[in-house]
């Protein structure tokens, strides 16, 4: 099993087309076919089903995809580690919630690209459990999450600047006209939330969703923050969200804030990575850049 064969296999698995894979790799089609056949002979299994009009991965091929990715990434890391290069290279895979992907990470990724152009960044949106699971399993190099840091020993974490949390309502909602709104006064008020497992849902559950006595009336669960904001703007109910996710809507009057008096108006932001094991060469430089741009004042 050669790295060249694995790279060819990965490309064919992505395209499911020998011609397109050959074009992307700048190989002759016959060379791509020979490499795949050699890899299949070496492993003793068929990696692609060629019986239909289009090729598709077999079960064995699907299993090999993840290993091929990891082996090729490890090879990149090994080259960078032994070459003595001052400028890291390779791939850095990052998980983060939708809000941070849209509003915080673009400036960070741009700065990192300017200073480390040889590192290819892959950004994968996901909720906290998905992102931390990816770091644990090795499919992600690091992840950004809202809330406290992970307590498992396999993680290392760094706290970044916290994000403000606000209750928003449609324009003209009675609560927006009040000077102060207590948690008790939100009891029975229609609220929209995200699905369980999402960082934003956890914010709701830990504040409004866990109070003793009457609570807000959850009328809908939405997986998209954009859809949730639009539903609030249309009058469907209120929502608890990070300020950065609704700043533009507030500025143009599509949403209004509810003057909620709860003391917990901020949520922690963490960046986490594996405590042990092989690291992407770009991990430490990226953490340095994150600390510089998004770090907590205490760092």
Task: Give a brief description.
The protein has helices at residues 3-15, 18-25, 29-43, 59-83, 98-103, 105-115, 128-137, 199-206, 225-233, 243-251, 283-294, and strands at residues 48-49, 56-57, 90-96, 119-125, 142-146, 155-169, 190-194, 217-222, 239-242, 256-258, 266-274. With 299 residues, it is α/β, with parallel strands linked by helices.
Textual characterization of the structure:
It contains eleven helices and eleven strands. Helix 1 crosses helix 3 (29-43), helix 2 crosses helix 3 and helix 6 packs across helix 11. It has 299 residues and is of the alpha/beta class. Helix content is 42%, strand content 22%. The relative contact order is 0.15. The protein has helices spanning 3-15, 18-25, 29-43, 59-83, 98-103, 105-115, 128-137, 199-206, 225-233, 243-251, 283-294, and strands at residues 48-49, 56-57, 90-96, 119-125, 142-146, 155-169, 190-194, 217-222, 239-242, 256-258, 266-274. The strands form three sheets. Strands 3, 4, 5, 6, 9, 10 and 11 form a seven-stranded mixed β-sheet that branches. The longest helix has 25 residues, at 59-83.
Topology as H/E string? HHHEEHEHHEHEEEHEHEHEEH
End-to-end CA span: 46 Å
Overall average residue pLDDT: 89
Share in β-strands: 15-25%
The coarse silhouette is elongated
List the helices and strands and how they pair.
Layout: H1 3-15, H2 18-25, H3 29-43, E1 48-49, E2 56-57, H4 59-83, E3 90-96, H5 98-103, H6 105-115, E4 119-125, H7 128-137, E5 142-146, E6 155-169, E7 190-194, H8 199-206, E8 217-222, H9 225-233, E9 239-242, H10 243-251, E10 256-258, E11 266-274, H11 283-294
């Amino acid at each position: 099993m050669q790295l060249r064969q694995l790279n060819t296999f990965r490309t064919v698995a992505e395209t499911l087309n020998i011609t397109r894979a050959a074009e992307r790799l700048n190989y002759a089609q016959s060379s791509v076919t020979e490499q795949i056949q050699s890899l299949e002979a070496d492993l003793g299994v068929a990696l692609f089903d060629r019986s239909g009009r289009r090729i598709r991965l077999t079960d064995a091929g699907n299993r090999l995809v993840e290993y091929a990715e990891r082996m090729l990434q490890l090879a990149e890391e090994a080259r960078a580690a032994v070459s003595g290069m001052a400028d890291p290279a390779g791939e850095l895979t990052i998980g983060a919630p939708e809000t941070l992907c849209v509003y915080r990470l673009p400036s960070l990724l741009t700065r990192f690209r300017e200073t480390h152009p040889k590192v290819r960044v892959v950004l994968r949106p996901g909720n906290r459990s998905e992102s931390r699971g990816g770091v644990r399993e090795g499919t992600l190099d690091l992840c950004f999450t809202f809330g406290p840091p992970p307590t498992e020993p396999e993680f290392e974490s760094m706290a970044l600047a916290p994000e403000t949390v606000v209750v928003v309502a449609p324009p003209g909602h009675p609560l927006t006209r009040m000077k102060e709104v207590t948690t008790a006064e939100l009891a029975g008020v229609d609220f929209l939330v995200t699905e369980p497992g999402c960082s934003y849902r956890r914010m709701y559950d830990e504040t409004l969703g866990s109070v003793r006595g009457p609570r807000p009336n959850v009328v809908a669960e939405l997986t998209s923050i954009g859809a949730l904001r639009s539903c609030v703007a249309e009058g469907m109910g209120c929502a608890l969200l990070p300020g950065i996710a609704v700043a533009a809507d507030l500025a143009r009057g599509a949403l209004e804030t509810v003057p909620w008096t709860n003391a917990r108006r901020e949520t922690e932001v963490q960046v986490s990575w594996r405590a042990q094991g092989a690291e992407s060469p770009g991990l430490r430089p990226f953490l340095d850049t994150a600390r510089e741009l998004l770090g907590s004042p205490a760092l």
